[in-house]
Amino acid sequence: MSNSEIISQIIIPRITKNTGIRISPIYEKNIEKYVEKNALEKSLPFEEYCDLLVPDTVEFENLINAATTNETYFFREKAHFEFLQKTILPFYRGKELVVWSGACSSGEEPISLYALLKFWGVKPKIYASDIDSNELDLFKKGVYSKYSFNVDGKEFHKILEDTKTGSFENEKFILNQDVFNHITVKQFNLAGKRLPDFFDKADIIFLRNVFIYFDNNLRKEVLNLAAEKLTPGGLIFLSVSEICCIDSDLIPDSMEKVNNGSTYFLMKKDGTKSVLINTIVPKTEFKVPKKIEKKDCCDSIIAPKTVETSVKNTDAKLVFEKVNSLLSQNKFDDALNYLDDYEPHLGEKFYKEYFYALICKESGKMDDAIKHFVLAETINPSFWPAHFNHGMLIKERGKDEFAKRCFGKCLLPLKDYIDSEKKDFDFLMESFSPTYFYELCKKNT
Questions:
Q1: Displacement of CA 426 from its chain's centroid (Å)
Q2: How crowded is the C-beta side of 377, counted as CA atoms within 13 Å?
Q3: How much is the pTM?
Q4: Which residues pair with 202 in a beta bridge?
Q5: How does strand 202-206 pair with strand 230-237?
Q6: Residue 97: which region, alpha, beta or left (left: phi > 0; alpha: psi -120 to 50)?
Q7: Which among 245, 279, 373, 408 could bridge 390 via Cys, Cβ 3.0 to 4.6 Å?
Q8: In terms of Cα–Cα distance, which of 392, 334, 328 is closest to 362?
Q9: Tell me: the pLDDT tens digits for 21-56?
Q10: Which of 257, 230, 231, 228 has the alpha carbon at shortest distance from 244?
Q11: Which of the listed ranges 16-20, 101-105, 290-294 does the model predict with the highest average pLDDT?
């Protein structure tokens, strides 16, 4: 077998089996380069080094660390923090609130939660876990660069100092190590099919920006395990893009999807005396519009009051959510039929071409995907997501020089997007920051 075949047929399935992480074909080459480099450093043949990559070994753990993406920042998806401070935290002043951050990466999420709880006079008891030991080591060191801060959530940044969570020194944020009296950090594999044993029950669980790596079976398993660790009336937060397209059959029987008007979350149904159920969200249970049987929130947002769904002049974000929902179910024809009826607002026709490209890409029609990405670029040269995805597809085909030109075209409009603090295309980014894409483009040019 060639090195590439060993990676794709043996190593990648081994990673997925033990972690639930799905490795995109475009990243398989990166894994292969990582393995080749380590084999060379250890003076071992490629196949012999691969024999060392087995679960519960240091070599395999290092491989997992290399395979995971850990882009995060403080107060990411500010709507969740706004919801907490307006709706939850006032009822917990002077009381203890237990929170589990189940995919904490280098710690920005649990630190944000700690600071917000302290600011509102709530006693924080936070458990933070991640599969990546390298990221947890960075968390414990507590030194953060400007890349840990984003326009998203910037109105909350000041409370990091106000609560003495840390201090800004020489363009870095230095964490106050006293926070670890309230934050317990553990390595934990969400795909391990076991309950975390480092805490009893949590009032709130954050599992954001991790389900994008899991298939639906694993998503269901993880949600069931998380539900068991919730107190009555407890809440689970997924990222905005993830929860909107979670099918109803993935949600545990003990949970329900709730919309409070500004954000979606999952809530444990039992425990009718819970403050969270009776006082905070008494009338926000998710309701399915009459004559529409589907319970997916994407359908409820987009569909009108009759079954005959119209998408004329529908907001691009809502169309994107609907298309994503259909793609997650491999309903490619339904997605195409839906998009055929979409008539974008004036000046937004590039979105339709971009959505066509996404459907073609997911259904394996790469030539058509590239064609539609190019059309989107042509209609709006400043639409950097099309340039970026075009480059990634070309790179996947091994045409590195052509891909470099695509990434090069992406850099200028993306820099302008970042410098101008624009948010027009943020809904397309799976909660990753524009800076993350900028660094990827620079790396590939």
A1: 13
A2: 20
A3: 0.59
A4: 230
A5: parallel
A6: beta
A7: 373
A8: 328
A9: 776 665 677 788 888 988 998 899 999 999 999 888
A10: 257
A11: 101-105
